[in-house]
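Q: I have two molecules that I believe assemble together. Could you output structure tokens for the complex as a whole instead of separate predictions?
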Amino acid sequence: MSAPLLTVEHLSMRFGGLVAVGDLSFTAPSRAITAVIGPNGAGKTTVFNCLTGFYRPSVGRLTLAHAGQTHFLERMEGFDIARKARVARTFQNIRLFPNMTALENLIVAQHDTLMRASLWSIGGLFGLAGYRQAERQAVDRARHWLDQAELLEFADVEAGALPYGAQRKLEIARALCTQPVLLCLDEPAAGLNPRESADLNRLLLAIRDAEGIGILLIEHDMSVVMGISDHIVVLDYGQKIAEGPPAAIRADASVIRAYLGEPEDSA
Amino acid sequence: MAALVALGLAFPLVGHRLEDSVNGLSLGYRFDWVAIGVAAVFFGRLTIGLLGGVPRIAAFDRLKGLRMDWLGWVLAAIAIALPFLPFADRNLIDKATLVLIYVMLGWGLNVVVGLAGLLDLGYVAFYAVGAYSYALLSLYFDLSFWVCLPLAGLFAAGFGVLLGFPVLRLRGDYLAIVTLGFGEIIRVILLNWQSFTGGPNGITSIARPSFFGLVFSADPPEGRMAFHQALGIDYSSLHRVMFLYFLILALALLTNFVTLRLRRLPIGRAWEALREDEIACRALGINPTTTKLSAFAIGAMFGGFAGSFFATRQGFVSPESFTFIESAIVLAIVVLGGMGSQIGVVVAALLLIGLPEWFRDLQLYRMLVFGLAMVAIMLWRPRGLLSHRDPTILLSEMKR
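A: Yes, here they are, computed for all two components at once.
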């Protein structure tokens, strides 16, 4: 395998005396799905918040390398991580723009490109041809992802009025419209029924294969995790307790202990 | 229950009145009025109770589904034709001008409050900055209205950014309090910087605007041509009133055009997205600080334009014109109209500014009716008169 897309080295995040994440190191390659799992409160979302700039890590280095460029995420502002380093994320509790239509949600995601095309609004105000063309491209990209997520029929519906499963997929589509190199999904299958999460699996595999981007996934639904992950990192109390391909994780004694508790006879 | 509350309120307010009598002022009593009021509230409440709540009014419900495209054009056509209508006199045009000033302020504030969702209680500060920058520029540098107008807009936008920097990390109520304070700071500065702004006396005899160099005056100064001479018609003081009316109409329409245009640009969508969810915006690579600052600056700029128009219309500015109540009225216009709705602002401005002006004869009761109207709107249209939001882009309308 080539050089990893994302390298996390000695990441620690402390809130006062609480160590949410302690000395975590792992790597995530592109063209692969890396899952981060662990019991509730293990620090999974904290890792994501550090990666996407919502928290500034106490210690550690987060390196994103692609196309010959290296970004040190721990030093960047949150919006710059999305804009320059091209890390996109979704949220555990869906954060769409509920009063805007699905299409508008996807257009907002392409803000940076469109802003430049509209010459920071001045050109767009006078209706320059360059901006109109850029907007058409943006709509085409949005249409492509709506199509992939099977949401094309909802394009002009307000995002807040969509069914729950569709909102989850729309949020993923919105993240993809930012043309990321790393996509961080925080529990994308939470609240989905088995058929919807099977759909989601297919969508994620298609994204991995077609776009060649790296996917980082937090998930509790084991059918999703075991079904599509190429590599799994297991956290418990902020520490990495296991790492490996799905088959190895399934058999790992410490993982079973973390999830199911100590067997009674060993205590 | 409601009747008891009404009794408690009405007893000191309505029950007593000051009367001029021979030996100075004395206190009179009007308990019959209190009784009438309390009875009205009692039976009104009873009817509502019997009807099982506030009745829905079908006409209001129907407003929701209506497409408002044509209404805007109709209103614009009426506005353009108004001065030429047979019943249009000086009084009417003056009032229409006043309404248009508030329409423009409402549209300007709509960018900040309606689109970007930043509650700004100090909008009048930008109005004041615009008015004073025109007044001072024309006083000290003898610049004409047409030079000062863009400058006033720029100054106001500058103040918008100035205010924006420290306060944009605040949200909701806290932002409202700071902007409220900012509005007062500007007014207090204007009031106390006597040597520069004239303090409470204000600035008098501000230059009037000219129409491409033509002045509006019966006997123009040496070397200038008057409007009526150029057109070869008789002088009438109505010309200037009409000119001012068309000037503010043009400014207001420009505001509307720019706002509608911006809404369909990435910056406008980013404003709306920011109103909806700031955290998601950051995750999508939108810089919240610059986006909010741009909303503040553009809203302030339109406030500044309106301010300099106000200064040139009155020919006089003083801090008295820029009290908190002005901010409150403009905000009320935006909220009543339905946040983010352009036509709603027009309707609300007509209601809030137009009606009290027209019913000035009923001095005593107009504030009462005003209050009643507010209560009625909040009952039947709690989200504003026209709260419908048009999507900025529709896939079904895009050509392949």
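A: One point stands out. Chain B has two domains: 2-51, 68-210+236-397.
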